[in-house]
Amino acid sequence: MMEGKFVSKEKEVILSVKDLEITFGEGKKKFVAVQDANFDIYKGETFSLVGESGSGKTTIGRAIVGLNETSNGDILFEGKRINGKLTKKEQEDKIRKIQMIFQDPSASLNERATVEYIISEGLYNFNLFKNEEERIAKVEKLIEQVGLLPEHMYRYPHEFSGGQRQRIGIARALIMEPSLVVADEPISALDVSIRAQVLNLLKKSQIEDDVTYFFVAHDLSVVRFISDRIAVIRAGRILELAETEELFMNPLHPYTKALLSAVPIPDPILARKKKLVVYNPNMHDYSKDKPSFEEVKPGHYVYGNALELEGYRAAVKN
Amino acid sequence: MEKKTILKAENISVSFKVRNRELRAIRNVSLELKEQETLAIVGESGSGKSVLTKTFTGMLETNGSITSGTIEYQGKNLAALKKDEEWDGIRGKEIATIFQDPMTSLNPIKTIGSQITEVIIKHQGKSAKEAKRMAIDLMDRTGIPNAEKRYDEYPFQYSGGMRQRIVIAIALACRPKILICDEPTTALDVTIQAQILELIRELQEEYKFTTIFITHDLGVVAAIADKVAVMYAGQIIETGTVEEIFYDPRHPYTWSLLSSLPQLGQKGDELYSVPGTPPSLYKEIKGDAFAPRSAYAMQVDFDNEPPMFQVTETHFAKTWLLDPRAPKAEKPELIQGLHEKLVALTEITELNDGGEVRV
Fold first, then answer.
1. What distance in Å separates the CA atoms of residue B107 and residue B113, rounded to the nearest whole number?
2. Fewer CB atoms inside 10 A, N or C side of chain A?
3. Which of A197, A219, A248 faces B273 most closely, judged by CB atoms?
4. What's the average model confidence in pLDDT over B218-236?
5. CATH architecture of the domain covering A13-317
6. Is the CB of B277 less than 8 angstroms away from the CB of A161?
């Protein structure tokens, strides 16, 4: 399908999601949360999955780190399958290399543990230190890297502000020296001024430690700034995928257009002129002409039936 | 034509008792609200924006109290009202509030319809039959499809956006003069948020109420506000028309809020971020509360609290930079030509709607 065809040589795929399906419940109660998800993430890039609540974006993120089971398809990490049944060794490898940053920094940290313990928990679990000095040194290095102070080490999460707690969550993930970090809305619980600090921190560690990011987000204005490529998901289905500026400049799927039109513009004149595009999911006639996820321009994929895809191809041609 | 003042708060201070310590959440805030305008109060968490508006409806938590100042509303001083009975006829009826989370504002075990009619019967003294008719009409106007059918459903059968529409319908059932919207769209998805903002604007036109809109999102402010008040550490530090705040901001804190907009970020560069953290409100704040974080701070900022300097008839800012003796300071380059920068960002997407695509 989509992998490889137009990818230049230097882009190395680190994670590949193929025909992924995730369902919850069984029988009559069965609910398909994600269907036919296909995308690749390149090493060193920031890939964002954007959608509204209930779209399945977090479900995919959690499936990558292994917190949700998959019912069909593959998730390949560095070429190896990481969903389904894994040996203990494979499981450990995965946990070490793929880390997650959670949305709510107050709910995701152990309230009864000190910061020093929270950050080194992964080290304990995998015996990643020779002696106490080495462990403390590693924690100290991370504390400094995320912009906290040495005296913060022996405090508890409740003593910190939201932004600081998110830094602890980031330090906890980065100490494992992961290759891939799944960040589930890491800044949406934070204030505007703190957001910038956390985004800058994530960017910095990406450059310094060569980390790849998989961002799950709903705020398109932030996503535009941080991402190399963006996939738009709605009701469990990926509808469009393109490089960031391409997606913002040439949105093709009507849902992407609606989503972009809904992003508030921080400018009174433009905000008043803005027209809201409302997406009607019943506008597609997929009864005979079946839809698929196709590349309509190098690197730009859209979901649609033959007729729609023809229109999209014509639209990007000029 | 000069609009009439509907609510006037003067020198309001609010304190909370927290474990025997005094937290000064609001410090000497004055505010004038004109009829039928939309005032957006912007600030980060802890800046006091919710606390301030809670004083207008007597809804401060029990450990909080107004320690000074007056709130003048229709000849009454709301700051002097103590008992719940005194608030009857004002809270909910004249000044209504919509909160962030629609699920916690609705009763989960009562039908949607009964929750709206209850309010109509109580505040407008209508019969049950009449109230039901009015409730369905309100549901219609707030954009609930099949209102008649959905009248008998429960909150859990509604989506988040639909629930917030119901909360708005309930608030409007008593025809309030002032509607306080406390981050009403923060918990909602962007497409739903845009619809709710549009709805509030339409309803305001129809019902002629005055809106106070609390938010931390400058995009929402630009979409909805006529006037803006920027809060920092329990004070309003700048206030003006929405254009004045976005295009001619004067306070360094407003500058840094605007500079933090992700839209102004350049790929590959760092995003602007405000250094430091807001001051603790348990401690005495000397001078300009933002001074320790401001690149524009002068010695006087650390010693004396600045007064509100007047910029235009509608525009005021609480910074010593506006004192005639202060050296001339210009807003940061990043936010100069803000409008042009955002036009450049949106223009290409706009073209697309016409079916034309530029490559």
1. 11
2. C
3. A197
4. 96
5. 3-Layer(aba) Sandwich (3.40)
6. yes
A269 near A85, Cβ under 8 Å? no
Residues of chain A in contact with residue B225, where contact means CB-CB under 8 angstroms, are 268
Asked if A270 lies within 8 A of B222 by C-beta distance, the reply is yes
Count of residues in chain A: 318
3-state SS string for B150-167: HCCCCHHHCCHHHHHHHH
Alpha helices in A146-188 (DSSP H): 162-174
Q: Which two tokens stand for residue B235?
A: 């004070």
Q: List the single residue in B with minimal CA-CA distance to A244.
A: B267
Chain A residues within an 8 Å CB radius of B348: 248-249
Read off the pLDDT band of A10 (50, 70, 90): low
How far off is chain A from B286, nearest CA to CA, in Å? Answer: 23
Q: Enumerate the residues of chain B whose CB falls inside 8 A of the CB of residue A275.
A: 353
The residues facing B195 across adjacent strands are none
Higher pLDDT, B111 or B275: B111
**Portions of chain B given CATH number 3.40.50.300:** 1-94+176-359
| A301 pLDDT more than 90 | yes
CA atoms within 13 A on the CB side of B270: 13
Cβ-defined contact of B263 to A266 (cutoff 8 Å) = yes
CA-CA distance, B249 to A125, in Å (whole number)?
A: 52
Q: Model-level pTM? A: 0.87
Please name the member of A195, A249, A267 whose beta carbon is closest to the beta carbon of B338. A267
Tokens of A259: 């989503």
User: Distance from B73 to chain A by nearest Cα, in Å?
Assistant: 29
pLDDT tens per residue across span B92-140: 889 999 988 777 889 999 999 999 999 999 888 899 999 999 999 999 8
Contacts with A, B 220-259, CB within 8 Å: 220-223, 225, 242-243, 246, 256-258
CA distance B272 to chain A (A): 6
Question: What is the pLDDT averaged over residues B184-203?
Answer: 87
How far is the CA of B87 from the CAs of A242, B95, B118, B270, in angstroms?
A: 56, 10, 19, 50
Residue contact A315–B357, C-beta within 8 A: yes
Please say if the pLDDT value at position A28 is more than 70: yes
pLDDT above 90 covers what percent of chain A?
67
Q: Are A100 and A182 in contact (CB under 8 A)?
A: yes
Q: What is the per-residue pLDDT across B291-333, written as a single tens digit (0 to 9) for each? A: 999 999 999 999 999 999 999 999 999 999 999 999 989 999 9
Contact between A214 and A63 under an 8 Å Cβ cutoff? The reply is no
- Taking the C-alpha atoms of residue B245 and residue B33, their distance in angstroms, rounded to an integer, is 17
Residue range B1-94+176-359, CATH number: 3.40.50.300
* Minimal Cβ distance to A259: which of B191, B355, B356: B191
Are B348 and A249 an interchain contact pair (Cβ–Cβ within 8 Å)?
Answer: yes
**DSSP, res B91:** B
C-beta atoms of A251 and B349 within 8 A: yes
- Taking the Cβ of residue B187 and every Cβ of chain A, the question of whether any pair is shorter than 8 Å is answered with no
**How sure is the predictor about B354, in pLDDT bands with cuts at 50, 70 and 90?**
very low
**Tokens 């310094």 found at:** A208
Cβ–Cβ below 8 Å for B222 and A259: no
pLDDT tens for A130-145 read 999 999 999 999 898 8
Chain B contact set for A250 (CB, 8 A): 352, 357, 359
Q: pLDDT above 90 covers what percent of chain B?
A: 69
- Give the confidence band of B349 by pLDDT, cuts at 50, 70, 90: low
Output phi, psi for B81, to 5 deg: -70, 135
Torsion of CA A83, A87, A93, A99, to 10 degrees: 40
